[in-house]
Amino acid sequence: MSRLPGRVCFNIHLLSGRSEFVSLPESGTFADLKEAAQRVFKLGFLQLCTADGSFLDLRMMVQDAGPELRDLYAARISPHLAATQNAFALGSPIADAIFHYIMYDFSLQLRAYLDDAGHTAFVRSRLQMEVDMIIWSDDLAVPIVTATAAELLPALLDMLTFVKREFAARGFRINLAKGKTGIVATFCGTGAADIRRLFQLIPQPGIMHQFEEGDTQFVHMTPTYRHLGTLYTSDQQLDAEIASRIGIAVSAFEQLRRGLLANRHLPQRLRLQLFRSLVLSKLYFAAGTWHTPTGRQCDRLRAALARMLRKMLGPTNRGLSGPQLLASADVQEPRVHIAMERLLYAQRVFHHGPAFLQLMLHSEASQCPCSWLEGLRYDLAWLHGVEATADPILIATDLTALIDYWQRDPGRWKHRIRRAGIRHLFQECLYQCPDCPRWFTTPQGVSTHRRKAHGVYCPEHHLLDSATCPACLTYLWSTQRLQQHLAYMPKDGSPNACFAYLQTIGYAVTYSAEHLPQALTGQSRRDALPVAGPHGCGSTATDRRLAALVSERDTLAAEYFEYMQPDSVLDAGARLGDLLTSVTRRWYHDFVQASYCFEDVERPQDRWIDVICKLPSAYESWTARVFILWGRHVLPDLLAELLDGEAEAYLDREYADLVNDFDEYQMEERLRKLDRLIWQATLRPEAPEPHRPVRPPQENARPRSLPQLEVVRLFDKQEQWQQDLGRVRWEDMPQDPFVPLVPGLAPRPTFIIVHLFAGRRRDTDFHAWLDQWAERWNVTLTILSLDTAISPVLGNLDCRSETWQKIQELYLQGLVAATLSGHPCETFSSARWTPPPEGHPEHKWPRPLRTAMQLFGLDHRTFREMRQTRMGTAFFLQTLWTFACHLAYGGFFIEEHPGTPQQAVHPSIWKSSIMKVIRQHPDVRFHEIGQWDHIAFPGSTGGVVTWGASQGGFSSEQFRALGAPLRQLMATQSAFGALAENGRVVTWGEDMDGGDSDDVQDQLVDVQQLAATSRAFAAILADGSVVAWGNPSLGGDVSNVAERLKGVTQIAASSGAFAAMAEGGVVTWGRAGDGGDSSAVESQLMTVTEVIASQCAFAAVKADGTVVAWGNPHHGGMIPEELRDTLMGVQDLAATDFAFAAICGEQRSVVTWGSPHYGGDSSEVQDQLKEVREIRSNKGSFVAILADGSVVSWGHKGHGADSSEVRDQLQQVEKIASSSNAFCALLRDGSVVSWGRGSEADTRLVSGQLVGVLDVCASAQAFAAITKEGRVVTWGRPESGGDCRSVQEQIRYL
To answer: Tens digit of pLDDT for each residue in 813-844?
Structure first.
């Protein structure tokens, strides 16, 4: 084979791989010549001194060898020069010329032999490949392939006989010593196992062979052979080669470590460069020719690299995992390094490699799924993803264009590969161990670390101490293969027979490893060797346990029934029982006389002992048994006669204390327990269950032993990571901690506030407001403003800076009361998606760095853009970390960042899956300032018009999607849901709060009613079932109660839970603390006619007029006992956030309960609450409209409870609307009166327009009214809908 530098045996590996794939036996025969140097000297001297011209070819070779050899030949070699030792030494020009001539002549004869024997034609017809031998100096390698295993060995020996004869004719002898000449054979097919056992799986693998001359010599068979620096193995795997490369690299490292690589006086950068040049070059020697390594092989290389780097870098990197260590030293992961080597080698193969080698590569790729070219394609895909500019020829199916590029510009290719390696190091991230802070590049690495560092072992660990299966007695060559044997799960779902048997007999050993014999390293198909004998037939653990129990019971029974008893047993027992009854009655009489004071009378236990001790000691055991029987059969009847619970308790305790001191009682209890255990042990044992999950069917049963074709880029898996994280749900909520207060920092109570990315101070900034607040509440605020604009050193928030390390300590100690963050948003900005102006160079215009699903960055970006993205991502994750600290340790967190973009592809931290998971937490609130408070009005055509926010609005396209007039409009805190007359539903607003109903849209058919918590919707369908969406923790998930939600007619909603009136009663779901758990009152919720909710509680009116409440007691979830008698004949209910109010009885009076400050106490206006027509409420106050049209209000004054200033105007009230803090009353004459707190309580700016009003409604902080002319009048906060000028044309004729 024409070799490329450093790449050897490549075509034999290709041929072997193809042969194994099509199940053909094959072998590589490696021959070494004996005393080649001396024989070349003699032969060369004789040939060069011949003058008859018979060696014309040799003379021509000499002429081509150089001027020195030409002069030597012309002089016919002077005697003094020919006598030197170096003239014909191997490696000298003369010796090379002579030896190449001889070997060339030999190769012609060998090729003719292979043709005549049919080997060349067989390979060409069966494998569609050309095959050639490898001759280098005095080494020879010849591949042979046969149709069956039985034909391979005779063919090899015949070929070896021919080689020996031909070399002998040329004056050479083959060196048949071990390690010099050997056969590396791979037997497969019929009869292969028997041949392997005869010639390979024996202490001295090989065969005695008689050559033509009659001499008999031993021909060695070996699983591995090192040829020209590379190991050739019969199993065609890289394990032996990798182990050898690691050994060579470690040896080189140890030679250089003390004086060079670990020398702290040299810069670390220089030492790492030397490490790459002097050690990695040996570790990855010829790695470009390797077929793709498996995951385990990559792990082995990674571990070796980590060991050497730890020794070289010293304690400065202590505590880092292997992958972290490689990343800190800028050393590539093994799979990435091999990809780079293969990409470089591929360019050399297709640039100046031999044609037959290129043809062999393509032929192998056409039939082998894990071919060298297939691995190259994955490497090219990795390069395509890493490079700054996407090159389509890298991922093209046809490699023609790429090969043309390789042949045109080989220098540029090497630069591209080196650059791609640097970019890969910059992008990658790691997997963290769940038990400690260490990181790894693969999940398998995490598993290995957990086994070694944390003792997390496989289920078979306690069964491993050798290479022989204790159940089936099969020898499996190594403990690792034994573990695989016991872990194998049959595809039919049955348990592993050996594992189940060993578990049944209770087998357990101390772990001990038996490794594969060194002589068999690289051997293909190491067949398990069964031992003659039956399958394990020992007694089971259950049998042994049953035998032990029966033996113990027999021994104990013999002891228990061996005692002395009186002659007349029944009469004596009856008399003793009567005495015990008598003394017990006497004790009770004394107990009553002592005014039921137990301490003042003699204990019953002492009186019983006096009776028992009067009998002879020989009957002690019999007496104890009688006492036990008396206590079981007579004492209960006696206690029933006393009718005294206190005396009964004393007597029971005294009896129990006394019998526990009797050996007879203990023996009896033990016998009873043994009988129960024996009965359980005799039951038919259940069939063993599989101890591991059954794997789904796979094309290959050994997926981890397959080549790791893909060059893993975690950067590529962002979208999958986001999707997986999006399925995470909160199960256990951390307890709500108090806001951290730091004692002793100042005379007054002190809170620490951290302002991240604060920027420079301004006169009226957030800090100024905090200072005013602190002064008003007499507290001290210590504000840490951190930004490089304030201090380039102290304000540096890089995750590796000293400032950030100190800030982390504050958070982890739970000392930070609040965090205000506004991390840089430049890399998240939607402005980057704006196309450049016409004529502006695109490369000078900002371009997108992220998308919604690729939040950590896009491929094909420059290093400058990658650094920008990385810094923005790091700051985002740091702020999220502080957010998580507040959830765990208490306090407040405010994140200032641009709102959610309208375009789905545009990035936003609010769209990230990790932020969505955090926002599912019930204590987290999302507020887009000026974006989530809306007013919505049904239009005259059944449509809807919204205003108040630029985002979350209801577009005309959405309305047209309804296809029918509007029936109902509901809202969570930042999303709307619209129900049309045709039963269809459209939602808009914040996705996490119910604005995105795409996942359930196919179920939202023929909807009858909508309901909403603060962050989720629920819909009643025509068949009485319920569909929910939005935040799962706050009612958006009905999976746990779906089966009970049948025949639902009404749904009520608190802030975080729903209550549905179904066929079987009221069904609740959502946050338990908000009324989502009604199990305590479930039996009372069977005949309910109405359910309403406060913020965190529910109240239900039953058919008999009574009320049941549940949920948070501070929000009205518990009705005081003193009010239960008055809560009769309830006709209507209303609720604030913290209290309930009920209209009761024929007089329609009002009963309230809950927080007294928020409407739960109506005592001050109780005498006015008669003949109440209806009750309205807002967050903290109630308003009652009386029968005469007047109004009575009570509750929290900050929420409109004080209506005294407008009381005279509140006459003939028809309707009342409520915002969060105010009320608006519509009078019979069409005028409007409002009161409470906030701008919506003041109608002076619009009083002239509020004439002839037909209807009023409200948002959180604004009111809207419709007049007779169809005009809409609004007032209140503009961002809450108090300004409708932007949509005035649309709502002009509502």
So the answer is: 888 988 988 878 888 887 788 888 777 777 77
What is the distance between the alpha carbons of residues 56 and 40, in angstroms, rounded to a whole number? 18
What's the rounded Cα separation, in Å, for the pair 934 and 361? Answer: 67
Least confident of 140-154, 228-242, 488-502: 228-242
Q: What's the pLDDT tens digit per position in 523-553?
A: 767 777 776 444 555 566 777 778 888 888 8
Q: Taking the CA of residue 929 as centre, how many other CA atoms within 13 Å lie in the half-sphere pointing to its CB?
A: 5
Round to whole Å and give the CA distance between 393 and 384.
9
H-helix or E-strand spanning residue 827: none
Task: Determine the pLDDT at residue 927.
Answer: 65
DSSP H stretches of helix in 967-1081: none
**H or E element in which residue 679 lies:** helix 663-682
What would you report as the CA-atom Rg of the chain, rounded to the nearest whole angstrom? 45
CA 916 vs CA 789, 893, 1016, 1266: distances in Å? 31, 16, 14, 38
Measuring CA to CA, how many Å separate 66 from each of 49, 96, 137, 704, 1194?
A: 19, 12, 19, 54, 115
End-to-end CA distance of the chain: 89
| Distance in angstroms (rounded) separating the CA atoms of residues 698 and 140 | 41
What span, in angstroms and rounded, lies between the C-alpha atoms of 1225 and 1189?
11
Of 8-22, 289-303, 761-775, where does mean pLDDT reach its minimum?
A: 8-22
Tokens 């107990």 map to which residue? 591
Beta-strand relationship, 780-786 and 750-756:
parallel
What pTM was estimated for this model as a whole? Answer: 0.49
386-429 pLDDT tens trace: 888 888 899 888 888 888 888 887 678 888 898 888 888 777 65
Tokens of residue 143, six digits: 């591949």
Yes or no: say if 18 and 363 are a contact pair by the CB < 8 Å rule: yes
Query: Bridge-partner residues for 185, per DSSP?
Result: 27
- Which of 618, 612, 615, 628 lies closest to 660, judged by CA? 628
Torsion of CA 697, 703, 709, 715, to 10 degrees: 80
DSSP-derived pairing of the beta strands 1107-1111 and 1065-1070: unpaired
Q: Compute how many other C-beta atoms are within 10 angstroms of the C-beta atom of residue 1020.
A: 23
Q: What DSSP line would sit under 265-278, residue for residue?
A: TS-HHHHHHHHIII
Amino acid at 207: I
| CA angle (540 as vertex; 538, 543 as ends), nearest 5 | 120
Name 1273's bridge partners.
1265
Going along 201-243, which residue ranges are E strands? 206-210, 216-220, 224-227, 230-233
* pLDDT at 941 > cutoff 80: no
pLDDT band at 1108 (very low <50, low <70, confident <90, very high): very high
Mean pLDDT of the chain: 79
The whole-angstrom separation of Cα 377 and Cα 369 is 12
Residue 1166 has pLDDT above 80, yes or no: yes
Sequential DSSP letters for 871-924: HHHHHHHHHHHHHHHHHHH--EEEE------SSTTS--GGGSHHHHHHHTSTT-
Convert the pLDDT of each residue in 269-325 to its tens digit: 888 889 999 999 999 988 888 888 888 888 889 889 989 998 888 876 666 777 778
**459-464 LR contacts (CB < 8 Å, sep 24+):** 459/487, 459/499, 459/691, 459/692, 460/486, 460/487, 460/499, 461/511, 462/508, 462/509, 462/511, 463/499, 463/502, 463/507, 463/508, 463/509, 464/509, 464/511, 464/512, 464/513
Residue 1083 pLDDT > 80: yes
Asked whether the beta carbons of 905 and 851 are under 8 A apart, the reply is yes
Contacts of residues 976-980 at CB distance under 8 Å and 24 or more positions apart, as own/partner, are 976/934, 976/936, 976/946, 976/952, 977/1010, 977/1012, 977/1017, 978/944, 978/954, 979/1007, 979/1009, 979/1010, 979/1019, 980/942
Phi, then psi, of 169 in degrees rounded to 5: -65, -25
Q: Which residue has the tokens 């800090």?
A: 767
